[in-house]
Amino acid sequence: MAFNIAIDGPAGAGKSTIAKTLAKQMNYVYVDTGAMYRAMAYYFLNQGIAADDEASIAAAVDGADVTIRYENDAQQVYLNGENITGYLRTEEVGNMASSTSVYPIVRKKLVALQQKLAKTTDVIMDGRDIGTCVLPNAQVKIYLTASVQTRAKRRYDELITKGETADLEQIAADIEERDYRDMHRDASPLKQAEDAVLVDSSEMNIEEVVAAITAIVKEKQV
Question: What SS3 state is found at 150?
Fold first, then answer.
């Protein structure tokens, strides 16, 4: 039987970094569901579709084939046969993904692929509703969070390191807005699953978070 680990939490909490590290350490398959939604958002942007144009999104969604492959131990995201991994982490794509992921037609298409993979493979998935909706029977569920200030500073430092211009206050405002949108959307809102373990990383580094979650996983595997 496949062993599934679900990691949920708000934007900027470090879910992807932690999930990738755990997957490599445990030799599990890491499924970045956020990247899949970003791939769909990238598709909509290239089609010139507005985030609030639900009718056009519904009409276009079947034209996008999103797949995940592992090449040289790294996850690569493909859209209709094209590797678009390098385009997925822009602010524009991120905001589009947050807006369009609320539509049931978008979720339905991607969730089916995620669930199929988890039935036969030991996976770690991170996102907004993995433990509550996508993998409700996951053996381990983690709700990873951090304060808005901490998440904004992490994003600010990331952008500055890349040589990009960044406004810390604006980033914090964007994070608060995204939190509200994610938590109040009609389709699968962000919330902590009843059986999820809360991990607040505000005062923790990556190694400490990985160690804490590893200990939780080991308890469940006994």
Answer: helix
Buried b (16+ CB within 10 A) or exposed e, 35-50: bbbbbbbbbbbeeebe
Cβ-contact 7, 144 below 8 angstroms: yes
SS3 (DSSP) at 143: strand
Q: Which helix (H) or strand (E) holds 5?
A: strand 4-8
| Separation of alpha carbons 113 and 128, rounded Å | 16
The domains found in the chain, sorted by start residue, are 1-28+123-222 (3.40.50.300), 34-121 (3.40.50.300)
Q: What is the pLDDT of residues 74-118, one digit of tens each?
A: 888 999 999 999 999 998 999 999 999 989 999 898 998 789 888
Residues 6+ apart with CB under 8 A from 177: none
